[in-house]
């Protein structure tokens, strides 16, 4: 049965498809679930997945992914506000904020929330790296300024990024749970 990935972000879908190839087909659904005001990605994602599954009809499971970039020297900013910051000031400006700091460490976090008729499950993934001046044409969002082991995530193929990224790690935990679940 296809999994409906509820997101407006094609980059997330590309990564989930690549990771889940041979497990389940992934279909992108553009449904605007309520993003509850919360500092917790887990709460936002779980609520979104439950709501989408209830509202969309059909019994195909849904997946929601709520991600954020947490910059150490900026007290975790932009964190849950990462999409807003990307849309307003942009990635380059976030890099400029980090550039003024000695500590340029940052962590990407994501929560994948899965919902079907049996309920909702969440899976977390994170990766620690360093912010750098933008490099690379691949990926999306903050990938050009996020370096891991000398390479920005925008310089990686989808497969390379999945092998180390927050989303790849969450997808790995999800895939393991999905294979073992009771149908
Ligand atoms: P949906 O909510 O529709 O899924 P979105 O792009 O708004 O899409 P998020 O709120 O989860 O998704 O994303 C928070 C921000 O972090 C947003 O600016 C993304 O572009 C960025 N982002 C998420 N995952 C990323 C990744 O793997 N690499 C780089 N940036 C990422
Ligand atoms: Na979003």
UniProtKB/TrEMBL annotation:
One of its GO terms (cellular component) is cytoplasm. One of its GO terms (biological process) is purine nucleoside triphosphate catabolic process. Its cofactor is Mg(2+). Its EC number is 3.6.1.66. Substrate binds at residues 7-12, 67, 140-143, 161, 166-167. CDD domains: HAM1 (cd00515). Keywords: Hydrolase, Magnesium, Metal-binding, Nucleotide metabolism, Nucleotide-binding. Binds 1 Mg(2+) ion per subunit. GO terms for molecular function: dITP diphosphatase activity; ITP diphosphatase activity; metal ion binding; nucleotide binding; ribonucleoside triphosphate phosphatase activity; XTP diphosphatase activity. It comes from the Archaea. InterPro entries: dITP/XTP_pyrophosphatase, ITPase-like_fam, RdgB/HAM1. It catalyses: dITP + H2O = dIMP + diphosphate + H(+); XTP + H2O = XMP + diphosphate + H(+); ITP + H2O = IMP + diphosphate + H(+). The active site is at residue 66. Mg(2+) binds at residues 35, 66. Pyrophosphatase that catalyzes the hydrolysis of nucleoside triphosphates to their monophosphate derivatives, with a high preference for the non-canonical purine nucleotides XTP (xanthosine triphosphate), dITP (deoxyinosine triphosphate) and ITP. Seems to function as a house-cleaning enzyme that removes non-canonical purine nucleotides from the nucleotide pool, thus preventing their incorporation into DNA/RNA and avoiding chromosomal lesions. Belongs to the HAM1 NTPase family. HAMAP family: Non_canon_purine_NTPase. Homodimer. This is dITP/XTP pyrophosphatase. It comes from Natrinema gari JCM 14663.
